[in-house]
Amino acid sequence: MAVIAIDGPAGAGKSTVAKLVAEASGLPYLDTGAMYRCVALQTMRDSVEPSDQLQVGTIAENVIISVDGSRSLLNGEDVSDLIRSSEVAAIVSLIAAHTPVRTAMRHQQQRWIESHGGGVVEGRDIGTVVFPDASVKIFLTASPEERAVRRVGQSGGDVVTVAANIEQRDRIDSERTDSPLRPASDAIIVDSTGLDISQVVSIIVGHYESTKR
Predict the structure, then answer these.
(1) CATH of the domain at 195
(2) What SS3 state is found at 22?
(3) Which of 11, 23, 181, 201 lies at a CB distance of 3.0 to 4.6 Å from 124, suitable for a disulfide?
(4) Would residue 156 be called left, alpha or beta, if left means φ above 0 and alpha means ψ between -120 and 50 degrees?
(5) Across residues 27-43, what is the average pLDDT?
(6) Is 8 helix (H, G, I), strand (E, B) or coil?
(7) Is residue 209 part of a domain?
(8) Do 4 and 184 form a contact (C-beta atoms < 8 A)?
(9) 43-63: per-residue pLDDT in tens?
(10) pTM
(11) Alpha helices, DSSP H, located in 84-129
């Protein structure tokens, strides 16, 4: 199965780039972040503390999540907009750091790819843990300043606050015990600072096309 794994820190543009890479390569797209956001939303609805690893892990094991393109279903309900709320964003890093949650989501991601026969998958541990045998492994990054500016352009806010939030997210992702954020040993590092989206997509698709020659 053809799998393009795109990992990287918050604000690097993974989701936008992955969608366009999927279109250009003719592969389906899987937004793994939406899965973790669905767990976070259910955690809020069940009034469970995000720090409670046991209960949050149980939620992750029992929720039914369906992600297709930009549409996300949680137990059959379309929550595509709800999972993008600031409330969900505030706790998803804590949710995603729990080992039982990552294990449950990892299995769902692997089943999704199996059922679709491959795909473009973006996240933070795709090339290192979820799909270590991916056809192409990309670690997409950008300067902290540029990542903050991009986030402000997408969601609003002020650059200083957004930059602080990104720094906190980076720290949580990099220091967690289970599947910390880091490039795979054979990943291609793509620094998108100063590049437009079409240039980044072209670079990644070029690497993927080279694997088919």
Answers:
(1) 3.40.50.300
(2) helix
(3) 181
(4) left
(5) 96
(6) coil
(7) no
(8) no
(9) 999 999 999 999 999 999 999
(10) 0.86
(11) 86-96, 99-116
